[in-house]
């Protein structure tokens, strides 16, 4: 549900990192914040307010201007994974333009993963988003740990669905950018088909992806 | 929950500088900068127009063109200082987007290094203010959204509960009514059942009585006719002896006396009446027995499909003389009543008995209304008169065999009983509504062939 203001030449996109509690959604965003160039990227904002109702999410914003002058803001959110924060999840998920589902590879977390994915399906339906059409990638995080689901098993289960699956170890920055890049690519296709980014705004997929995944020169030099 | 889908609770509305900052947030900081020795401190929109400023504010309330040119070249995200000039400019970002400029200028006398430090400190302070406000707005927004959502959900739950409560309330109310209706129906059915049982036992009794009477009355009737013939013969011989004996000296006088003593002349006159009355009586008994036979369906013909309207017409035409004699008027209001399966003779008999009663229900201006209609799988027949009506205390008894209000010998009391029995035989029902002085309506319901 992209926000697009033709007169103001503004477009706001919302990407959401979804998944069970403690699967590494915030770690993904923290790593992106560190990996990506400061230019066009805002600071990571973490909302962690504790009172009678815990509200918690992270926001990593991006901003760039298309050759046509279209200002594009991309907001990457995480949702709280805890079951009791379903209302917050729904609020964050509303009007999302792309979703990265971060699963926990540990065998002990299998049930939580499927419960969270079912919750995602339910909440998407609730906020009126068709999961079939929504840009969606899946990341199996914590590949560095022991007692994890094998990659073969993961591919066997998820490949038939056509949803891109990535192996990651977010804590060490592995697989984080790959996951994000594919999400951004899928999101471009999704938006381009509706708002002709290329034709109207001379914004190619390459430019779009580059703007959002520009690696910090400090890191690149290493 | 469908309603909820339409509620838009998107999070993180896009904000400009003026949405984030207010005069009370910025002015104390700008004042402090000027107080520290600066000439002008200003926060502008991204085009250089002053939003808030302190110190020597230029009349046009815009940044100097030199500063704007520098801002245009500026790399976003990094505070920019322009060497050799006594002013500093930084770009304010919100969510990576440049949304305004922060400008400080100072008299040449002010130490350059001090100005740089002042600018750096002030800009950091401004950014903290912005970040805190944004965070607060976000938190509030999310709080509001979540609370609103929870509230909407509660409202929805409340609506659902209210609806279900209403449903159950209605259900319980109608339940009471339904129980009453059913109870009334059961009572009615029970009464009907009792009535049917009564009728059935009476019917059985009647049938056995009829059977028992049938034989004796048969020979009584036959013997009476024979007796009538014999008496004729005896009369003849008595007459013969009487005529011949008048001339005889021996027995003439004696015979004459005996003839008188035995009142043979009176007997001759009366015996004829006695026999005639006995034969009449026997005939009546025969008729009653014949009715009772019909009542217990001793002789039944085959059933066939019929149109009730046609059979009603037949019945009325059979009664045409009676109708004419009484100058009664028949009003027909026929509806759909085809497709009944039964014995036409019995059905006509059933109608006939009711129509006869109706014809005898009044003396003047008698109007009999015959109405038929189809209700669901039933044919309903109304036969209404505007006669005297049936007294309430005998309404329950009119279908009983031998019950009659007419003088002894004038009615057998079998008419309505036979009707009742025929209608019951076809699993139909008959009811009567009557008001004294206004007339009676018989309502017959007959199930149509499926």
Characterization of this structure:
The complex is a heterodimer of chains A (222) and B (450). Chain A has helices at 25-35, 86-93, 110-126, 151-158, 176-195, 197-201, 205-212, 217-221; strands spanning 3-5, 10-18, 45-49, 55-65, 71-78, 98-104, 136-141, 165-167. With 222 residues, chain A is of the alpha/beta class. Chain A has one domain (3-214): Rossmann fold (3-Layer(aba) Sandwich), CATH 3.40.50.300. In chain A, strands 1, 2, 3, 4, 5, 6, 7 and 8 form an eight-stranded mixed β-sheet that branches. In chain A, strand 7, helix 4 and strand 8 (165-167) form a beta-alpha-beta unit. Chain B has 450 residues and is of the alpha+beta class. Chain B folds into three domains: 17-150, Beta-Lactamase (2-Layer Sandwich), CATH 3.30.450.30; 188-295; 304-447, Histidine kinase-like ATPase, C-terminal domain (Heat Shock Protein 90, 2-Layer Sandwich). Helix content of chain B is 56%, strand content 17%. Chain B has helices at 2-5, 17-20, 23-35, 65-73, 112-245, 252-261, 264-295, 308-318, 320-325, 344-359, 415-425; strands spanning 40-45, 50-55, 80-81, 87-94, 97-105, 304-307, 329-333, 338-342, 367-375, 378-385, 429-435, 439-447. In chain B, helix 8 (308-318) packs across helix 10 (344-359). Classes of the chains: A alpha/beta (222), B alpha+beta (450). Chains A and B meet through strand 2, strand 3, strand 4, strand 5 and helix 2 of A and helix 5 of B.
